[in-house]
Amino acid sequence: MIDNQTSGVFVISATPFTADGALDLESAKRLTEFYLEKGASGLTVLGMMGEAAKLTPEESLSFLDTVLATVAGRVPVVVGVSAPGLVALRSLSLQAMERGAAGVMVAPTPNLRTDAQLTGYYRMVCEALGPDVPVVLQDFPLALGVQFSVDCLLQIFAENPQIVMLKHEDWPGLAKLGALRTAEEAGAGRVSILVGNGGLFLPQEMERGADGAMTGYAFPEMLAQVVEGCKIGKRDAVEDIFDAHLPLIRLETQPGLGLAFRKEVLFRRGAIASPFVRRPGPKLEAADMAELDRTLARLEKRLAELA
């Protein structure tokens, strides 16, 4: 199970499809092994970048079963269970936990606007799931349009101890991250904080107190290097490597088109058999491919120089 001390790199898994759009479970096995070989401390499946909303309920469970069987207990697996209604959210959560998941991730529904609505929502979620299901709260205002204040988050964590982790994706969010850690030092309960946004601010977020990353960048070994390097005081050394990856991180972090870039890189790295993004979804044009070619060539050259 995940807990409030969980750290490292939880890679958000892509969901592989065949070239005609069918779920590709053989690639799911290959991709899972790829993530583990590249240093993942854990995996997160059925997230936004995993195209969870485009899967049928049967496909979601089939993909989850494949990942869990491939992982075979080597690392914890968090399952995205966000849904408009609590009945569907609870059903998927309990099925995931029964299958061996280490926790579930819940994003707020987009209609929540006030602190009272947000605290009330997570109170209902935790009551529906019961106290034995570890929960990750996803704070991603750029995608969801929902804003959590620091005080609101602290109240939610205090009222619901089963929320053991924050998926921090506010942008800009360094001040919020620092404020949460300052509150912890002043006596607030601790939660694990893993950061997203493609890892775009990872070294700075580690400096402010993050425990690691939860994102899907196609070079997870770099994320693992940065997290470990920052923990042992070698930020300058690993930040040179991080800086070399920034142009590709920018491509992958773009709203919409970024997923197509990410899947194309995973395809080129041999992790999946097809870069297909299920419809409706973006498709790379010739100019996009040329830009990716140049970006990858520059990355390879710079990493060789650093080596």
- Helical residues, percent: 40-55%
Measured between the Cα atoms of the first and last residue, the distance is 37 Å
CATH topology: TIM Barrel
The secondary-structure class comes to alpha/beta
Low-confidence stretches: none
Total number of helices: 12
- SSE topology string: EHEHEHEHEHHEHEHEHHHH
- The count of β-strands is 8
Major sheet strand order: 1-2-3-4-5-6-7-8
Q: Quickly count the domains.
A: 1
Mean pLDDT across every amino acid position: 97
CATH class equals Alpha Beta
How much of the sequence is in beta strands?
5-15%
Identify the overall geometry.
globular
Radius of gyration: 19 Å
Features:
eight-stranded parallel barrel, 12 helices, DapA-like, lyase, 8 strands, TIM Barrel, 4-hydroxy-tetrahydrodipicolinate synthase activity, Aldolase_TIM, 12% strand
Set down the secondary structure blueprint:
Elements: E1 8-12, H1 25-37, E2 42-45, H2 57-71, E3 77-80, H3 86-99, E4 103-106, H4 115-129, E5 135-139, H5 141-144, H6 150-159, E6 163-168, H7 174-185, E7 192-195, H8 202-207, E8 212-215, H9 220-231, H10 235-253, H11 257-268, H12 286-306
